[in-house]
Specification:
The longest helix has 35 residues. By secondary structure, this protein is α+β, with helices and mostly antiparallel strands. The strands form 10 sheets. Strands 18, 19, 20, 21, 24 and 25 form a 6-stranded mixed beta sheet that branches. A 5-stranded parallel beta sheet has the order 5-4-3-6-7. A hairpin with a 6-residue loop joins strand 8 and strand 9. Helix content is 31%, strand content 24%. Helix 3 packs antiparallel against helix 4, helix 21 packs across helix 22 and helix 22 crosses helix 26. This is Ribosomal RNA-processing protein 44. Pfam families: OB_Dis3, PIN_4, RNB, Rrp44_CSD1, Rrp44_S1. One of its GO terms (molecular function) is endonuclease activity. Its main location: cytoplasm.
Amino acid sequence: MSAVKRASNHSTLSQKVFVRTSKAGNATKVVREQYLRDDIPCSSQGCQYCKNNLYVADATGKRQEPILETQPNKTTKRGPHYLVVDTNIVLDGIDLLESDKGFYDVIVPQIVLEEVRNRSLPIYARLRALTKNDDKRFYVFHNEYCKDTAVGRNKGESINDRNDRAIRKVCEFYTQHLGKDYNGTAPEVVLLSNDVNNRKLAKEEGITALGLKGYVSELVDPGQLIDMIPQRALEEEEGAKPKSGKSEALYPEYYPMSRLLGGIKNGTLFQGNLTISPYNVLEGSVSTKAYPKPLLILGRQSLNRAFSGDQVVVELLPKDKWKTPSTSVIESEDLAANEGGEESGDTVMSESERKLLADDALKAHKNEADAAERVQPTARVVGIIKRSWRYYVGHIAPGSIIDDVSRGPRSVLVALMDKTLPRVRIRTRQAAALQGRRIVVAVDSWPADSRHPEGHFCRDLGPIESKQAETEALLLEHDVEYRPFTKAVLDCLPAEGPDWKVPQDLVKEAAEKDPLVAKRRDLRHLNICSIDPPGCQDIDDALHARVLPNGNYELGVHIADVTHFVKPDTALDQEGASRGTSVYLVDKRIDMLPMLLGTNLCSINPYVERYAFSVLWEMTPDGKIVNTDFTKSIISSREAFSYAEAQARIDDPSKTDELTEGMRVLLKFSKQLKQGRIDAGALNLASPEVKVHIDSETSDPGEVEVKELLETNSLVEEFMLLANTSVAKKIYESFPQTAMLRRHGAPPATNFETLNDQLRTIKGMSISLESSKALADSLDKCIDPNEPFFNTLVRIVATRSMLAAEYFSSGSYAYPEFRHYGLASEIYTHFTSPIRRYADVVAHRQLAAAIGYEPLHQSHREKDHMESICKNINVRHRNAQFAGRASIEYFVGQALKNVTKEEDAIHEGYVIKVFNNGVVVLVPKYGLEALIHIDDLGDAETAVFNEKEYKLDISGKSIRVFDKVKVKVESYKDKQEKRKVKMVLL
């Protein structure tokens, strides 16, 4: 929210001098010219000078206005004042700055914005969002270009000291500037800084300076804000001295960055993302190109304070220390029971870990021949390149409040909902009040001498198990943006709102308003319909089929033309790109785009005219495509069917109207398309899909059922796949370096080692990985005549062994690597769901340019920009999937609470994993799996685990992978206070 008048008579020329060093060590003097201006406004509504002289119309002709209130910050005991923040305040206090309790009318010096961008892109994005928030009124003041505030660097002065001086200069300027021509009494200017020396110098210069704690204490209603200040920031503000003496390190120190980078370069160290096993929190793995199998990281000493998802550097251990993956289940609650007090012991190793490593050593000794085949290289973490830290949701662990009497801040441990992560220590004044509630925390650091990472309190979501708190928790846990759309985004929507209509006279109205509309093909005469899940409100696609005069068929897919409303590089477009995808929960939908577009103007609702992007094929009666045409269009859907309604209409012989006959033609050709894909090697994988029925009045979860798939499901799927493939070819042809595509890599053979060994050992079967066709054929042969579900079970396990599909920019890979392994397609993209996926929006823009409809925006021509888009939407797509699954798990757990009859709680399940201290069972009825601990299986003392045969014998029972079992399914809360499914073997 900055306004700079571009007038050459208001500027003077200055120079900045830099010394740039090349890789060869040569130094080059760089001189940059810089214009200093005297017309940069202060943006205070009370400043008469700026208001009358410095505000001009922007490019759209709209006059820019000041944003800082005349008498600001009425939420504090201090009089009206503006806040000027330094860099560390933003880095340490971004949560505070975003809160609604205080921190309004904030001046962000340009130098602070640039420093934040260099040090943390996520925080920079949040700061930029604040500058666009009309309620918070954050203003970026371009101090580096203002003649009165630009400062050079003094001889012997550090860059940090120079920047601090520049920020103080901004405070001085505002104080003097506002004192000249103000409407009333000018507000005070307050510098916010946690740097003791900076505050001292500011006070010597007559500037009011406060730290975070000092300012928060002045708020009329500080609420929980004091607890939101990181401990590091508190210590800096209070000028705390380093602790005397050196605490004994519990973890190894990380290697210096120079050694890490050197080791990666010469191949002695390896870099990758750490993944913690969901069944064993003491076992991690890092995949590298140097080894076919992931590197194992065993034990907390070797994990060395790394979180799951961190980008780490690891050092290989000697070969005599390489191991096989653990066969034990160790969850965070098991560790908590063995850890003892925070200060107990002089080692970080718990009893669980000692037992784990001892068992592994014994196992390796007993099964040396077998282990030699399954052994994996083992490593330890020696450095962190990039932390994956985010907001975490959890609850105060019972018994972790060290001092429940003192009124001051107390250290407590927060057990996180993600059981693969350690407990986080925070200091809070409201420990007792926060017990039994879901809270949000942020991690600040993890010193080598601390058993736990250290963080701070951010927010209270509400009571544990309340639907609102649990829903918000799962959205935060999966980094889903769910806040309402900002005013800037909503301002991009059509001014007519829901009254917007497609023009009736394409030529006349197009010439007056939008010349592009005249390029659209009028397809309103076609019998088009949509087929979707019941209750679908955001209808992306519709279809039609008709016989052509030459005896061939015209088949069409019509996709909502989102890009007519979402123009590149607007606030609406940026928000869609950031969110990446809509997120579907059991009881709600988190939209990628505002509802006016998603469920109204773009949605292909029946009986109304809509803009579309159509793909039309001419096919011979035997299914051969003789022509493909792409066009922007205007359509009118005749009907919106659910899958079941469409199936019933197709199957009803009394229905002979054109719309029904068209659907029968579509079904006929969809079967041919599907057979063609299968013949080419497309995989028919499986994952259990369930639906939770929600009471329309109470919103309580009711019956849970497995979704039934009909022929009409396949009908829609086949034509969407064909459209995506056709579009992919077209946009790659036009934009070979930046086309938005989607690939699915062939899975490494090592991913299927365990599954193949289980099939050979237990069933005498195997699956082939020579090609997708070989895999598909071998999966078809995995049949147990005595168990119809067995083939589906194998497909479910096989799906988990596959690599994830990903979006990519075509210039990032060679053409052979474009292949989508699962679909057996050489090239593929996503085009058919632009309402809910941003990748499709980009594909629409590229296709429009490819057919000459309109030029392609520069951002979709730049390889680096396209790669950053792909990176973000890959993460958002994965997070959306996990959030959807977590929502199902939560609501299934709630539904099970209402089961009163014991016979209704008993279901069939299938064993999919066997450990030496438990088994994992999948229940298809709920599409969920759960671990049954050894104590719930029988007498643990009688247990005998046979790793080679994937079998656990206990109390006279023998339990094996693939076994069909009867289980009692119950709902319970685990140590993370998450409502989960508990199974008891019957």
